[in-house]
Amino acid sequence: MKPGDPKLKLLYAYTKALSVALGYRDQLTRLHSERVRDLCAGIGIRCGLNEKQLDALRIAASFHDIGKIGIPDHILLKPSAFTKAEWEEMKRHAEIGAEIIASIEIDGAHDAAVVIRHHHEHFDGSGYPDGLKGERIPICSRIISIADSYDAMAVTRTYHHAKSHPQVMDVMYEETGKKHDPELMNIFCDVIESGDFPLARSDQRSAPI
Ligand SMILES: [Fe+2]
Fold it and tell me: For residue 203, what are the CA distances in angstroms to 41, 154, 199?
């Protein structure tokens, strides 16, 4: 599922090397990003995004956590809960990722960087790094937030066990209107129930990764 625009293809090729680099530091994040990219594309298509927007969404979703390259190992790979200071440091990955992608002087990089910067904003304004609210958050960032949340809860990590699909959806419904855009959540529900994507704790996800 690569971008169709030739300029974005070039951007994708450059940033793919970064993704491989991230994989050497944190393989789980790399695999997570690939699943999030595919789910985001499914949501974006249902939203009626145009090809240019879909290309930007795929790029940003693929590299939304690329800023974790800049997070120290003792935090990035910590198997237990973060302290407040560690959590503040971890939150910097959104800004670091945007800075990395923006530094690639190719068409499309700036748009992708903006989307990456805001992928942890919350619909009610309680997210980071800028506390943006509602539709001031780029739609592609709102889509990534939903797909990111689903996948993060659906797989086993060193600090939590995978939740089942109904358990994940319960949490996400609870967060709708706070963390997630209600309209996009409706679209996400259609997409995830369509059978086109692996559900949490399905065969594809039953083994810890
Ligand atoms: Fe992130």
Answer: 22, 12, 9
In CATH, 6-204 is 1.25.40.80:
no
Distance 194 CA to ligand 1 centre (A): 26
- State in Å: Cα 95 to ligand 1 middle: 10
CB of 125 closer than 8 Å to CB of 66: no
Quote the pTM value: 0.89
Instruction: Break the chain into its structural domains and give their ranges.
Output: 6-204
| Residue 64 Cα to ligand 1 middle (Å) | 6
pLDDT in tens, the chain (209 residues): 456 667 777 887 877 788 788 788 777 877 888 889 999 999 999 999 998 889 889 999 999 999 998 999 999 888 888 999 999 999 999 999 999 999 988 888 899 999 999 999 999 999 999 999 999 999 999 999 999 999 999 887 666 778 899 999 999 999 999 999 999 999 999 999 988 887 776 544 433 33
Residue 33 CA to residue 24 CA, distance in Å, equals 14
CA 115 to ligand 1 centroid distance, Å: 11
